[in-house]
Amino acid sequence: MGYDIIGDIHGYAGPLRKLLEKLGYRDEKGAYRHPEGRKVIFLGDFIDRGPEIRETLHLVRAMVENESAEAIIGNHEYHYEKRDGSGHLRKHNEKNTAQHLPTLKQFADYQAEWNDWISWFNGLPMFIEKEGFRAVHACWDKKLITHIKSAAGGSVLPLESIYDAQDPGTANYEAIERTLKGKEFKLPDGIFFLDKDRHRRTETRTKWWLDAEQLEYNQYFMQQVPELEGRKISPGEVRDNDPYSENDIPVFMGHYWLEGIPALQRSNVVCLDYSIANGGKLVAYRFNGEKELKEESIIY
Ligand SMILES: [Mn+2]
Fold first, then answer.
1. Claim to verify: residue 193 and residue 213 sit in the same structural domain
2. Which of 42, 61, 108, 118 is most exposed, with minimal Cβ within 10 Å?
3. How close is the Cα of 36 to the center of ligand 1, in Å?
4. How many independent structural domains does the chain possess?
5. How close is the Cα of 112 to the center of ligand 1, in Å?
6. Residue 46 falls within a domain, yes or no?
7. Claim to verify: residue 81 and residue 216 sit in the same structural domain
8. Which of 157-166, 263-272, 273-282 has the lowest mean pLDDT?
9. 107 alpha carbon – ligand 1 mean position (Å)
């Protein structure tokens, strides 16, 4: 069976419909289907930022319920409700609130429905592992995925595990944080850069699939830091170094707000998030079981 893997949507239902139609899916009685039985894998981050968050959620869920898609959770869907109902798991800082505002506004008249969406989010798997490929929102680290599998007995973390995962340093916290947000590296003292929202960052996202021990900082970082140009990473400096083998099956991810012309990260690693909420595009990969991914199978 063929799979079409789609990156972060962030409430852009219009471009999502266009992309699905380009991929040959047709809206049949409220759910998109492919005439040849292909399936979509959604990589998470359905909500926040965009203009049609509710429509996006309905579209995705209709496909999941009609078995023409499977969906995993993104970091934006994670972190709602504590066991006692007293608040969010997500840190309530200014940045997260601003991103989440469009969701709150668009659901102002649909409070009961929003509570139902939270339950739906909590039941989404953290990753998908099929015969010939893997899908995750931000990072596939074998040890962390193994941890989630044993803590959850599968790919969906039971709520109890999520609730005790709020404290940095706990195994659950680290596993969820890195799987949904990737691995960040703390820059040397005094060095920072400005991200797409012009937030000052002292940690940078990394190319977790590479072996950090062999690289210069900027070869391992997703964002380039001019001050560190040409400097090598010291042995042991990246404590969570766990490269993804070049011989392993392909892994698909979203999350990284890439820009420019969509391309493979490596022949078995591809990120499909191209910043739809920041003037970019929605991107898919048309997967037919190949061991080596192909640039021409990236569709947008
Ligand atoms: Mn994300």
1. yes
2. 108
3. 30
4. 2
5. 25
6. yes
7. no
8. 157-166
9. 20
Of 287, 280, 279, the C-alpha closest to 270 is 287
Residues 210 and 71 in one domain: no
Q: Choose between 79 and 134: higher pLDDT.
A: 134
CA of 141 to the centre of ligand 1 (A): 16
**The two structure tokens encoding residue 29:** 């009685």
CATH at 39: 3.60.21.10
If you measure from the C-alpha of residue 15 to the centroid of ligand 1, how many angstroms do you get, rounded to a whole number?
Answer: 18
Q: How far is the CA of 7 from the centre of ligand 1 (A)?
A: 9
Rounded to the nearest angstrom, the distance between the alpha carbon of 258 and the centre of ligand 1 is 11
Q: For residue 75, report the distance from its CA to the centre of ligand 1, in Å.
A: 5
* Alpha carbon of 124 to ligand 1 centroid (Å): 15
Domain boundary among 224, 239, 254: 239
Of 219, 239, 259, which one is at a domain's C-terminal end? 239
If asked whether residues 80 and 195 sit together in one domain, one would say no
CA 300–ligand 1 middle distance (angstroms): 19
| 17 belongs to a structural domain | yes
Identify whether 171 is part of a domain.
no
Mean pLDDT of 246-257: 97
Asked if 288 and 12 touch (Cβ cutoff 8 Å), the reply is: no
Distance 100 CA to ligand 1 centre (A): 13
The pTM of this model reads: 0.92
d(CA 201, CA 186): 9
Q: Mind listing the pLDDT tens digit for each residue in 208-225?
A: 999 999 899 999 999 889
Residues 19 and 107 in one domain: yes
* 293 inside domain: yes
Domain span including residue 197: 184-239
